[in-house]
Amino acid sequence: MADAPQIPDEAEVRARWGAFAWSDESREKRNAILARYPAGREQSASIPLLDLAQRQVGAETQTQGWLPVPVIEYVAREIGVPYMRVYEVATFYTMFNLAPVGRYHVQVCGTTPCMLRGSDDVLAACKNKGLVKGKTTPDGLFTLTEVECMGNCASAPMVQINDDNFEDLDYDRTVTIIEALARGEQPKAGTQEPGRHTVEPLGGPTSLVAMMSENHDYRPEWGA
Amino acid sequence: MPKLKVDGIEVEVPQGATVLQACEAAGKEIPRFCYHERLSIAGNCRMCLVEVKPGPPKPQASCALPAADNQEVFTTTPMVKNAREGIMEFLLINHPLDCPICDQGGECDLQDQAMAYGRGHSRYDENKRAVTEKYMGPIVKTIMTRCIQCTRCIRFAEEVAGVEEIGAIYRGENMQITSYLEEAVTSELSGNVVDLCPVGALTSKPYAFEARPWELRKTLTIDVMDAVGTNIRLDSRGRQVLRCVPRINDDVNEEWAHDKTRHAIDGLVRRRLDRPYVRRGGKLHPATWDEAFEAIVAADHGKVAVVAGDLVDCETMFAAKALATQFGTPVLEGRQTGMDYDTSSLAAVNFNTTIAGIERADAILLVGTNLRWEAPLVNTRIRKAIKRGARVFAIGAETELTYKVTWLGDDLSLLGDLPEAVTEAFGKAERPAVIVGGAAMKGAHGAALGLATSLNLVRDGWNGFNVVHMAAARMGGLMLGYASKGGIADARDAGVTYFLGADEVEFTGFGGFKVYVGHHGDRGAAHADVVLPGASYAEKSGTFVNLEGRVQRGERAVFPPGDAREDWTIFRALSERLGKTLPFDTLEELRAAMALDCPDLAEPGLKTFAWNPPSLGTTAAGRIEGYPIKDFYLTNAICRASPTMQRCSAELVHGEAFAEAAE
What is the pTM of this model? Predict the structure, then answer.
């Protein structure tokens, strides 16, 4: 419990974010989001609007964004539900940051498949580059978080940085990505394994090979 | 009507009933934590697992499983026993073993069910989770490590209290129940979450470490904090009432009580009158009963008036009336604040739909009432009516009632010229209801009665005209004739005025001799010439009539302090000194005499009054600027003497901050 993010509700947070309002760009998106739900069901828009608000906060602070309490309240007023209900949603999902983060939010998966494939090396690489779990680097660039399964087990280990996944990592590839980001470059997202495109089997397919060139009916072979 | 078998017993349950309810119908006890009859179903504690055929070969949560035809339910099989033991072991993984210092100890669902269904030991060797305490206001104390996340408190706040300020934040093992940003829960019903909490996570802050449940003497009685007549149980030890909890009565309070009912009791031991006082040279001096009575006998009993306060029982009012009548026709009045509405027909000042009946109304018009403060437990019924589809309109100053109301404005002339939306909704309604509050009774009683005809409120089996009273003594007083044509102004020129715990009166106009019979040294005692110490509602057996005309009897929980006596015995003793001895020596004799005077008070139960409203003229003008209750927590002498109520008032009504002291 002690490492759960504490939600700042101090006077300075209120002073800084009390006047939060949609930017023109966000307002358009907000209208599009609300149009998806029938009247009286605005509560369904809690998650997309919180995400939108977090992104706008990120744009305003040149970071990945977070959700100060006044912003959560603003979203709640937007959809006409009690503060508590939106607050519950914001605290439930780990994708919503309850405390400020850096420009790059490095989320390392440490669940079993990634761990077996070497997520410890990824974490070690982060550590050696000065990233500390749960903290932001002094230059405000990186925040490191260890998260649970991100659903990329076929190309483990992986790390999610902002909206991109970086997969098939090892120590050196992780260092390369972090250094590229620190220089302000945008490294290639997705798998880092040369010759691999997505999560296709390494070394070519091993099953359903007859399907590779043309549509093949396997059913007679299965006796179906 | 599904028919099913529970452990071989065939039962038939209503459509939509759950397997858990079917098991109860068959007389089987199903352990549960999250399930509660009056809240929605959550199904998250898993304690109510049973085996059901046909169905998947695993235990099923009976609280969330609809009963169906030909089901076979087993509650005693090894699978069920094993499942319960497993769930209990899981629940106890993070539950601290602090029962010896826990306020819930001895009346704890978790404790009882762990004894009954648990394994008796744990196989968990890791560290337990700890959760920080949350601030929830002056009534609810939290020890959140004990929480088993049944979410009853969240559902209560959302569904019954209508104040969505309690919620669960974070998730999984880190889930925590808290109020929004740990602010005080701004509900006058917040104390109920203490009763709902099946463990000791939410306990009563004023009652913390006061007593153990097994050392308390339990007395069943009636609450006097408002006119709803909440059925309560007073838990006392020695001479002090330590706790007040509601009893279940589906016709009146269901199983809720508001915070004033629960926590004003600490005012019962503060600022009490425990000896008679006599005013000499402009100052009140302690006196003996003899001296006090002599002072009264010396007063001019030419014209006698009796002013009844808000908290007195019918026996007191009857004894005072019986004495006063010996001196000719007395002025009897109970409406302390100067109301003078017509009382020729009691049906015209009664809550005719009944409290339970208002749930069934499908169109409701509130006229000058802040129901949330005037009768919180009627307010929860209106929330239930809205859930069934009722529409609610209101005339008066806008205020937060916890539900959606169409405010029509604060102009009383609207009563004669209702907007089309209202007439349309009432035209279509099968059970329309109007609720008139204290703010409208002054000038718009007649106009509101006019609505009974124009909106067709009274029909076969339904009378939709309701008046909300705020004093526990009001309906009983009106039945005993405590209403004077001109209101309390009629009493001003009396030679002797008896004030029965009347503290809200404007005393300056009373020129004659003032006798105060009451239990608290409040405004009434300060203005009196003689103060006679009486008993509070906890210290006497009394009859009370609630706002719907339900006669209820309460029992004595403790004895009055010091020289104080039960009020009727004071009048019996005084009558002898005045040479007009009253003809009753026991409470039974008094009640028999009272039943002769007012047959409706003879037996407890709901009394119905014939509908023959007076014609009072249907025009009303003026505005409703505010409501009679300015501060919910400080409405009578007991509340004002109660530190808990003072704190609630300061924090919840006046917004003072009470930071928790840092440990």
Answer: 0.91
